[in-house]
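Q: Structure for this?
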Amino acid sequence: MTYGIILCAALLVACGTSNEPEVNEPSVSLSQGDLQQLKQPRAVEEAMRDPRLRARALLAQSKYTEALRAFEEARQQHPESGEVLVGLGRTHLALGDVKRAGQLYEMAVALEPNNPSLQVGLGIFHLKFNRYGEAETAFRTALGMDSTYAAARRNLAAVYSKGGRLSDAAREYERALSLQPNDLNTRFNLGLVRNHLGQYEQANKLLNEVVAENPRHARALYALGEALLNEGKEADARGYFEQTLEVDTTYAQAHVQIARLDMRDNDLAAAAQRLRRTILIEPGIAESFRLLGQIYLRQGRESAGEKSLEAYEKVKSFEKEIDYFRERLRADPDDGEAHYNLGFIYGRLGFTGVALPHYVRAVTINPSHVQALNNMGNIYFRTGYLDQAAAAYEQILNNDGEHVPAMTLLAQVYLSQQRPQEAISALKKAISLDDTWGAAHQGLAQAYKQVGEVALSEEHRNRALQLKGENQ
Amino acid sequence: MNQLFWPCLAIWTFSTVLHAQSETVFVDVATQSGIDFVHDNGAQGMRYLPETYGSGVAFIDADMDGSIDLYWVNGGRIPGLTDGPIVANAFYRNSGQGSFTEHSAEYGVDDTGYGMGALVGDYDADGSPDLYVTNFGPNVMYRNERNGTFVDVSDGIDDAGWGTSAAFADVDLDGDIDLFIGNYVFYPLGDDMVQCWVGNSRERLYCDPRKFAGQMNRLYLNGGADSGWTWTDGTRDWGLESTDGKELGVIFGDYDNDGDPDLYLANDMVPNMLYRNDGQRFIERGLASGTSLNDEGSVEAGMGVDMGDVDGDGLQDFFVTNFQWESNTLYRNAGHGFFIDSTVPSGVHKVSMAYLGFGAGFIDYDNDGDLDIFVANGHVYDNVEKVDHASSYPQRNQLLTNRGDGTFTEVAQAGPGLDLLRVSRGAAFADYDGDGDTDVAINNSGGPAALLRNDGGNTKGWLGIELVGLGANTNGLGAEVEVVVGKRTMVRQMRSGGSYLSSHDMRLLFGLDTAQKVDRVTVRWSSGKKQTLEQIAANQYVKIEERDLP
């Protein structure tokens, strides 16, 4: 595996670089009681007979396909259970079926309209897709049933925070904190909101409390740096950004902040070096390209500067989406669709080395994710990893034996591996399934040429050209 | 003293009044001065976007009697949207004795369009200031007939977009002044109207500009006397056809000191733009120069704008007002075409976070020789408490004093005029009472106008300079004036426009602190000529006329 791919795989752990408040998942995962039970071998055996518990356990282990089956079984046995529907919805969501997931969340609430935890589940589902109005309604409904429900309170705060209603967010976080004073996450989020409100002293206090509790809380350290920066205390801010990097060397935003401070100190060379490194770590931060472009221009390197600013524009056009999916991953590292979408975006931006591990993760979560497998195979193919490419296309065919595009792509791999007979076999099958698939004819023309069957090659080439003309 | 230029100089004294007060305070004297203008934003509860942007105000010596008059832009009925009363813009004549009387209809400047901004400049070089009014709808150009009346000469330049701020400058350096008009967004009416709500409630909210496409700005090139003072649309030829911007603030100034006016545009929720004038065309350099985004690389809701040298390095720095919780932004000119966002280190960040700024200007309110900042504030949501409990619709205006090094602190006791809670929009600056300090006129959305008289600013020395250009650029727009007092050098540029939807005194006012004379004044005219005057007594207005060099 190339250095780039190894690097990118390692970078998958570096997803949490934005400072938006977190969302906490509803109570469909294993509860403390469940875990206690499962610690006992006999109890585990007993518990696994209950499809609800089994499904939850599988969900917790990210075994979504099996979890889906278990939840369906549980639904048969407990058709009136809203919790089962939420679990089912969450599983569908993990497998990328957002529409079905939404239906199930709604059905759960309709089934048990007085269950606040189901309202919270529905609210979190909406929040995940930035539907703030719907999310707010759900959390408010939950609080109407139980005003001491801390999860509803802090998620309502998250809705306000994301919607720019910062003072409302602060108020709700305060209330959530009074309900659960030891909730570090809420304290952290409140600190962030106070920071955005320009209440730096209060922000500092809250964030310092978080760091005192957890000195390796990288996001809190970073946020402390930001708060100090906003107060004009640049040296102190730099210290916190450096501490952030001691905890997590791949914290790209901290690198960007230090580079920015270097620029203020007119140390352009150091800033440029750091920014280039940051781009290797996380190319999805447009700001790195912007600052680098400005440095180059200030150094009189017009061409490099303009190129960097062009890259900035390109990355910027995807930055919101990148942030959005990264945030989803922070809430749920097993969000297969978020991985797939990040892979797709990085691929579009040309950062295939970063795209690949996201596709790999998406496929691990959902082994039948055709698009992820296809794109993963394409990256492997383009970078010369033919065996891995073949494996990806074969995996599509294992799920769907009549998938013509995968068949054609697999044949392309065979052709590159000088295995024309296998290519011919695959392409013939593809054409037998869809004679209008031009790429298959094109591939067959190549394959026949490799084996010296000139007439056949010519025949398929003409057919490919004909289809191309028709398509045009 | 350069004897050569003595004959070119006509000096007269307007005022040498020195107040005994030790502190500078601003007092709202609108009512006592006879200004009873009340802005009508036309709001009827439907929360149509134009309602919330308010209007501007212009200082203009319309009758050329030496006393600066006031022109207030009004809103009223929004064409095609509302059926409220039709209201007119208002012209108030300054008696010179501290009182104003309204003469809108008499002067013929009582436009009833849904008014946004007002701009003053002598486009036809007859020595009298003309007036351009931007509207949500067709704009209006009023030519000053030099007899106490204006006539509508809008044909060809009545761009029907959503005009906001405008500015005059001699962009092609052909001697006459050209007109740039900032346009905001396409705001569809009828079936295509976009409506916005508070959360998932049924309460309406003014929409975010991101919901609308930007509108093309306009550059009209002045054909000069030979053409009969007609205009041609030079927008595309000069590279200004982009619709990426959503302009609210517009200002010309020579940021790269190459002698021609560059253009800076404050955009709402899209990157600000800096157009470098390359002689034949403008080239957008916002991103490259570091003036399009804030220090964090974020776009901001740019509203008002000004240029000035806040740190005494001779280079033009930029100031932009923004949305609440964004802070206003100060871009310090680092030379060679680059800027550094100095908002945090300058102290601007902390004091402006909790306000939503519109009109803005660099003024030396206390005549201590450095440029301070005035900001007119007011939220855009009249129901802001529904979306942000920490905000209020009316807000205090702010005065930030320069410590002398380009860093600022808010003036805590700036007088009762700055304690008022208003929904302020346009702010214009002038020494309307001729006492040697800068006063402020503020157009408050949906409320009574404010005229903040500066009491005590003239405790320190000052020098007012009126420029008279030789050719068709009679106000010397684009000229740079350097004033040297002891070891201090102050640089100002002559311009028309800036702030938000407003237009200022066409004279430059320099604070001299304790000095009783100016050692040297150097004027670099936009024609390229340079004049120097020496040993000028403080506390007077001087007129400097451009002359042909031998």
